[in-house]
Amino acid sequence: MRVVFLDSLEKSDLPNGSCVTLSNMKVSLVIITKNQKHILQESLPVLLDQNLKERYEVIVVDSGSIDGAREYVESLPVQLVKIKPTTFNFARAFNTGAKRAKGEYLVRLSGDVIPIGRNWLNEIIKPFKNSKVGGTYGIYTITGRKGYGYPNFWPAERFPKKLTRYSVKPTFLMGINIFGCQFGDDKTRERVFDFAGGCCAIRKKIWQKRPFNESLMAGEDAEYAWFLHLIGYDIVCNPKAKTIHEHKLDKSKDESFFASRGITKWQWVFNWQIIKYWLQRLIYIDPYKGIFIAGKIKRQKVLRR
What we know:
Blueprint lengths: L26 E7 L3 H11 L8 E7 L6 H6 L4 E4 L7 H10 L5 E6 L3 E2 L4 H6 L7 E9 L6 E2 L14 E3 L4 E2 L4 E2 L2 E3 L2 H6 L7 E5 H6 L10 H11 L3 E11 L2 E2 L16 H18 L15 E2 L2 E3 L1
């Protein structure tokens, strides 16, 4: 692992991805991985060769790899953060890496995601030129190899074909889903949770005030999208920030009556986090007071599927 201090170095002397002690770091990439050496061998060379003019760093958070991934990461100019597999969840792993980050923007990548092209990093942060944008994400593509496809919750049709900005006006009880009963209008329901956590980015100043929710065993990216919209920020999907992200096809996907109505364990936990927020608001307690950039939240009727 290479650590570079810039007391006596010029910008031209700095290798991309190096850990530096500058306050003007533009981007920090946080990769969450375990036993994915074969994929890191494809993704890290791409990430270390980005044509971003500003400085950036790469932080790899590993939760117990035994396939040589740690040794491979240590041979590159990136930071390696080791965490115990017994304490792992995606939110906690990302937050652990983000605590080490020096960048203005935090880019989150799953360990099985491979960015495409030298301009990928430019594209994922480009929408932040608008101060109203709090989060961005790219798109997934697949190689077409047999037995693999898009992740369950992110089929191809969920990604827009052109640059798309999701602007959701917060409404009272927004995001709640109980037994298939949801609050908010149709447009809000479609947009409020769109945020592909495998290749996304947020502003560090927002994360510092409210990190990813470590109570969640899954869906922490969707919950963060809800939070960003709640406090008045927009989310942008940029299809030019393209990645390869595919999973083995899973025929055991739970499509039961209960799963379709949000009654699995992780969905219960997910929904409870949102319900808990609105219960607090009902008694005039706002845990996000001071973070909001939007106006008052309006009450909406309950809408059913």
